[in-house]
């Protein structure tokens, strides 16, 4: 596996003119399996990447993270790019997802954010209409330009050998964090807002959508060739409430992002009951968590939507032979086209990196055999 040289002397200065975007992926050495699969085109094997693949399970990440706060790491393009590349070097995955956090654009809207190992925290959560009215819709370059710069530096570091995935959170998920003040088990504050003051909730979702679309377009302009939208907490809503409070904003995001020419992945947890609604967004790829068999998800979504997933992250703790069997089962159920292999949620910090590497190699090996009709 190629190693990448880094110059840590180049700092990022907000407002500094950024380098021009690199050319689109092209050339004989480019791995475009992910992009072809998102468009339901044939590939030599099944592409694989892992949510949170740049993170605490990697010792090289922990070595960097030990010297810098998480939020500062997200805002340092050199370090964010280096962390983004680490799993490409170690695991051989088919894409690099930029190291960042879904709450980064929210901070730029004017709400104080604290990010640490225990998760996000908003000391002053949104609790009144006035709190929401105070939020701004930031210019993406001025407020979050470091993300674009990290994408450019990642592309240069990997010489465009694999696609870079840009991402953002969905309006409902971000609003849940902002209103609850952090994570939640009951989501009582955000749901009370939906049900007691729906017009105020829609104002918040609209403002978030107006922020997120330019934020993702900035990532595309910087060189992200596919984007993923995380509606991590959308599964906490009933289908009726999801259709009313999340679907319109997701649909608008997907429509405007697809107009840029890049494929769009939409992922959420506990979303099986919402799959028919997710299809209505027009997303190219729908991510499945491990609670839904891939073949069932494909049956519901139909042949014109690709799927992504969906190994339980804790299956990486299985003995290698059993893990190999789980990989084969998912690949058989998914079929040879229109499926991106991934976990059903993010990789967990105690995971052995060698298990993740074994997974990637197994997917590539068995994905090729599936296409050749020799998968045992």
UniProtKB/TrEMBL annotation:
Enzyme Commission identifier(s): 4.1.1.37
Binding, substrate: 52-56, 101, 177, 232, 345
PANTHER family: METHYLTETRAHYDROFOLATE:HOMOCYSTEINE METHYLTRANSFERASE RELATED, UROPORPHYRINOGEN DECARBOXYLASE
The species this protein was found in: Corallococcus coralloides (strain ATCC 25202 / DSM 2259 / NBRC 100086 / M2) (Myxococcus coralloides)
Any one GO biological process: protoporphyrinogen IX biosynthetic process
Major place of residence: cytoplasm
Similarity comment: Belongs to the uroporphyrinogen decarboxylase family.
One cellular-component annotation, GO: cytosol
GO molecular function: uroporphyrinogen decarboxylase activity
Protein name, UniProt field: Uroporphyrinogen decarboxylase
Subcellular compartments: Cytoplasm, Cytosol
Family matches, as InterPro entries: UROD/MetE-like_sf, Uroporphyrinogen_deCO2ase_HemE, Uroporphyrinogen_deCOase
Keyword flag Cytoplasm: yes
Site positions for Transition state stabilizer: 101
Record's subunit section: Homodimer.
Pathway: Porphyrin-containing compound metabolism; protoporphyrin-IX biosynthesis; coproporphyrinogen-III from 5-aminolevulinate: step 4/4
Presence of keyword Lyase: yes
Reactions it catalyzes: uroporphyrinogen III + 4 H(+) = coproporphyrinogen III + 4 CO2
Keyword set, alphabetical order: Cytoplasm, Decarboxylase, Lyase, Porphyrin biosynthesis
Residue intervals of the Uroporphyrinogen decarboxylase (URO-D) domain: 47-56, 165-181
Pfam families named in the record: URO-D
NCBIfam families in alphabetical order: hemE
